[in-house]
């Protein structure tokens, strides 16, 4: 029988890639629900092409506009709106698989709902995990849910792990020495530091290897993305700080590696195309066609690796510090960074202000100890408010 899929964040980069993979396997996957923010035109196109049962918009106004278009075009999709509807389609009894591809903290509640309902969660929305940590992982394990990482590095690490670690065994008892988390270094890996003050949003969102949404593109440019991924990897694989290493690999052909006690290093490689990890998580443990061309090694010119430069990328250093400090620090840092990136994209702060702002918010909340979902949401709101206040007062 075909699997029923809900895509949270269907109108985004990961969402559209997921639709592309699913459409290649009509007998295997069926679209139950798609969700978007306020992009009515994008959602209408998805509904026309894929005929999901339900389409969820972020608010009533957007839903009303979509509803009018749905009726006009004679589409059978039911339109709903709001967070409760996101939670409903993520936890609905008909649903087998939830692709969590909303960007930022807005994805937390539906993704946790999918965990509580015991779904297979294909997790792209790294902020949800960074923000809620063990609370989210406990919801997964206590309710028989399955968590599979879509983030290309974590998907690569997962694929390079022994089967018992994929099922939850610890690294040290499975012969794993280290996780080698690779990153491209983004568009400013070699840009002279004295020019960082003039970096514009357009420059920051133009990633050399990956085509992604605006927020993660800026995060890649500041390397906060690698920092969030460091925190994400520690949580997903129950890794100590010392069991992690970040290494820059500008070509993004290796998507991360696992180093073993016997000297072996296993890597997952492929084109920088998210349809590969998406297909892997949708059909795991089976392998399905994703539309991605295989690598042609004879065409690869360079294959290089360097250590990250923390002076150039202070956000990476902050994230590692937060990872050491604990959940309060990572929740606050994620919240601050979301506010900072949005302010940068709106032209309110400079590129180099992002790290300054994040440092202030992190220092102010580093000792917070959230113990419940409501603690997390409260700390997230506080940190956002503090970040906005700092922006208003001047960084
Ligand atoms: P995107 O900006 O292209 O899409 C984001 C999606 O979230 C859209 O569908 C949007 O409508 C929805 N959304 C945004 N705000 C919302 C809100 N307040 N309420 C409800 N829905 C909302 O982003 P993306 O690049 O697809 O990234 C999605 C997630 O996947 C992010 O967490 C990102 O870090 C992660 N990720 C993306 C890539 C990539 O290649 N794009 C790779 C790895 C991880
Ligand atoms: Mg990634």
Automatic annotation (TrEMBL):
Pfam families assigned: DXP_redisom_C (PF08436), DXP_reductoisom (PF02670), DXPR_C (PF13288)
GO function terms (MF aspect): 1-deoxy-D-xylulose-5-phosphate reductoisomerase activity; manganese ion binding; NADPH binding
EC number assigned by the record: 1.1.1.267
Domain DXP reductoisomerase C-terminal: residue ranges: 269-385
UniProt keyword NADP, yes or no: yes
Alphabetical UniProt keywords: Isoprene biosynthesis, Magnesium, Manganese, Metal-binding, NADP, Oxidoreductase
Co-factor requirement: Mg(2+); Mn(2+); Co(2+)
1-deoxy-D-xylulose 5-phosphate reductoisomerase N-terminal domain sequence ranges: 5-133
1-deoxy-D-xylulose 5-phosphate reductoisomerase C-terminal domain residues: 147-237
Reaction(s) catalysed by this chain's protein: 2-C-methyl-D-erythritol 4-phosphate + NADP(+) = 1-deoxy-D-xylulose 5-phosphate + NADPH + H(+)
Binding positions for Mn(2+) per the UniProt entry: 151, 153, 229
Record-linked HAMAP family: DXP_reductoisom (MF_00183)
Name recorded for this polypeptide: 1-deoxy-D-xylulose 5-phosphate reductoisomerase
Organism: Psychrosphaera ytuae
Organism taxonomic ancestry: Bacteria, Pseudomonadati, Pseudomonadota, Gammaproteobacteria, Alteromonadales
């Amino acid at each position: 029988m075909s699997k029923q899929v809900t895509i949270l964040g269907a109108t985004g980069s990961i969402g559209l890639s997921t639709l592309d993979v699913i459409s290649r396997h009509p007998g295997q996957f069926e679209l139950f629900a798609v969700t978007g923010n306020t992009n009515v035109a994008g959602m209408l196109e998805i509904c026309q092409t894929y005929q999901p049962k339900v389409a969820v918009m972020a608010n009533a106004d957007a839903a009303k506009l979509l509803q009018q278009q749905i009726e006009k075009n004679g589409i059978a999709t039911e339109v709903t709106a709001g967070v409760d509807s996101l939670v409903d389609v993520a936890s609905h009894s008909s649903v087998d698989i939830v692709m969590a591809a909303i960007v930022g903290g807005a994805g937390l509640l539906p993704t946790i709902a999918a965990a509580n309902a015991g779904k297979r969660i294909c997790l792209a929305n790294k902020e949800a995990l960074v923000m809620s940590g063990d609370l989210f992982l406990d919801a997964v394990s206590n309710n028989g849910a399955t968590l599979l990482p879509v983030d290309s590095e974590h998907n690569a690490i997962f694929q390079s792990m022994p089967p018992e670690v994929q099922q939850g065994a610890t690294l040290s008892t499975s012969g794993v020495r280290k996780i080698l988390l690779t990153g491209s270094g983004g568009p400013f890996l070699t840009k002279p530091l004295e020019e960082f003050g003039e970096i514009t949003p357009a420059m920051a969102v133009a990633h050399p290897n990956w085509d992604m949404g605006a927020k993660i593109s800026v995060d890649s440019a500041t390397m906060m993305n690698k920092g969030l991924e460091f925190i994400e990897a520690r949580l997903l694989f129950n890794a100590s700080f010392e069991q992690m290493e970040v290494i820059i690999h500008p070509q993004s052909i290796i998507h991360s590696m696992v180093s073993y006690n016997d000297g072996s290093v296993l890597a997952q490689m492929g084109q920088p195309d998210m349809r590969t990890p998406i297909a892997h998580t949708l059909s795991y443990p089976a392998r399905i066609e994703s539309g991605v061309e295989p690598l042609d090694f004879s065409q690869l010119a360079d294959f290089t690796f360097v250590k990250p430069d923390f002076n150039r990328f202070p956000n990476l250093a902050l994230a590692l510090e937060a990872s050491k400090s604990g959940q309060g620090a990572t929740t606050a840092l994620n919240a601050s960074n979301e506010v900072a990136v949005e302010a940068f994209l709106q032209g309110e702060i400079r590129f180099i202000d992002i790290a300054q702002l994040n440092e202030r918010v992190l220092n102010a909340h580093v000792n917070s100890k959230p113990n419940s979902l409501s603690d997390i949401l409260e700390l997230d709101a506080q940190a956002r408010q503090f970040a906005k206040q700092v922006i208003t007062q001047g960084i």
